[in-house]
Amino acid sequence: MRNKTPAKDGVMNIGKVAKLSNVGVETIRFYERAGILPKPKRKPSGYRQFDMSTVTQIQFIQRIQQFGFSLRDAGNIVGGKGIPEVMKRIEQQIAALKDLQRELSKRSKK
């Protein structure tokens, strides 16, 4: 079984980041091209060099999307833009879910 931790120097190639993030290599390249992830450092050979912060960012992006936010929203949040608007949307969703929970609770007692 392969080791699931980054290299001792903390530098990983794109394949390792993809495995740790549970996404495809092309997803990482797409995020980079779209400006959602910062451009990584490169070796003289041109290979990308990533660290654990990239894995953390990708996992955060995936989590944002799991809650129904678009990739554009995720990119804005990662970039520090639009956070107040997203927080407002989250608060609205929480309120709507609480209303739904109350209604379901009433119905289950009938």
Cα-to-Cα separation, first versus last residue = 54 Å
Named at the architecture level, the CATH assignment of the domain at 14-79 is Orthogonal Bundle
Q: Mean pLDDT, as a whole number?
A: 90
Largest sheet: 2 strands, antiparallel
Task: Return the string of H and E elements.
Answer: HHEEHHH
Question: In percent terms, what proportion of residues is strand?
Answer: under 5%
Strand order of the largest sheet: 1-2
Low-confidence stretches: none
- Tertiary shape: elongated
What's the CATH C level of the domain at 14-79? Mainly Alpha
Per DSSP, the total helix count is 5
Number of strands: 2
Rg estimate, integer Å: 19 Å
How much helix is in the residues?
55-70%
Please state the structural category: mainly alpha
CATH topology tier name of the domain at 14-79: Multidrug-efflux Transporter Regulator, Chain: A, Domain 2
